[in-house]
Amino acid sequence: MGVREFQISDRNIVIHELDDLYDSTTGRVLTGSWLWNSAFVLAEWMATQCKLFDFDFRDKTVMELGAGAGLPGLMAALLGASHVVLTDVEPLLPGLLKNVNTNGLGDRVEVRELVWGSDDSDMGPLAHILKIISRKDSKIWAASEIRPWTIECLTEFTSQGFEIKESPVRYDEPHEEYDHAIFDSFSIFHLRQRDDERNF
């Protein structure tokens, strides 16, 4: 796959993608070894539209679950987050660490193993982890391409006690790396644990 360089807003970022990385138990390819369009969409949204929600990354702690190549978490660090934790399964950690070091963010970004489910389509374990780590003032964002099964994933989160708001992604200018049309099929989802579901 190789190395990809991006300029998002006024920030440069380099992502190393991994080749031929497979789960040693199942033999399935590890999809987190390459950069997904949703990661790019979320990073771009964080850099350009997060301000519309009166949010500033400066001095915040950020955790990216299922980070893959780590683009959104690295963007959070570039936007001023004081501490970022990138998490994923063990085979992807060396690639995440390489991306942290390549971008000179080792002083603010750490890489940790966290397995939240055995199947990418099972959102129940992810919802459980989010309940454990989130607080009343936590911001939880996810970027997703709008597909027929997106509603199934969102329904799982609502059944687990989360409120969800959708922000369709819109950009006035195309990004040089991607066709502008790619953004038309994505949304950013804002998740918030309902007050009656909170443990603390």
TrEMBL record:
CDD domains, per the entry: AdoMet_MTases
Protein name: Uncharacterized protein
